[in-house]
Amino acid sequence: MSQQCVDPIVGKILAGWRYDISGLAPEMCGDYENHFAGCEHCRSRQRMHRIIDVGLIALASISGGVFLLAFGVIRHFGPRHAFWLEIAALAGFALSALIWLVVAVATPAPVTVLDAARKARAGCRSIACRDSRTPCRKKSA
């Protein structure tokens, strides 16, 4: 990449957190949001990490669905050695479910989505709202 971080120390801290600031206290969050606003390098890295996270969750979901479909097809047609094929299909589904769970727990993608929804509901005061495509609506008094 030809871009450089505007503040390498803050950039290294954010890289260690995989560019996730959703779990930080509001006092600390403001400084990092300001860094993201001014640093294209960190903003692009954060975007890349979220794309990878959501992609892994989607891939594990699709994989699990395919293994369940395979199990259903095997049950329907009942070929020779159907028992072992069913075991293999269920093992594949279990592995896909385990991978989905690990990715969902280890990455901030689900937390980020929930956090953005909460902030939008609370009155739209954060960077998550500025990035949304719909205008913010304040609660009426």
Could you list some keywords that capture this structure?
single chain; mainly alpha; 74% helix; 0% strand
* Element-by-element helix/strand order: HHHHHH
Oligomeric composition of the shown chains: single chain
Largest sheet: none
Low-confidence blocks of residues: 126-141
User: Please, how many helices?
Assistant: 6
Radius of gyration: 21 Å
Distance between the termini: 48 Å
Strand content: under 5%
Mean pLDDT: 79
Molecular structure report:
With 141 residues, this protein is an all-alpha fold. Helix content is 74%, strand content 0%. It contains 6 helices and no strands. It has helices spanning 8-16, 26-38, 40-77, 82-106, 109-122, 127-131. Helix 3 packs antiparallel against helix 4. The protein is elongated and about 65 Å long. The termini are far apart. The relative contact order is 0.11.
Element layout with pairings:
Elements: H1 8-16, H2 26-38, H3 40-77, H4 82-106, H5 109-122, H6 127-131
Helix pairs in contact: 3-4
How do you describe this structure in short?
The protein has helices at 8-16, 26-38, 40-77, 82-106, 109-122, 127-131. It is mainly alpha-helical and 141 residues long.
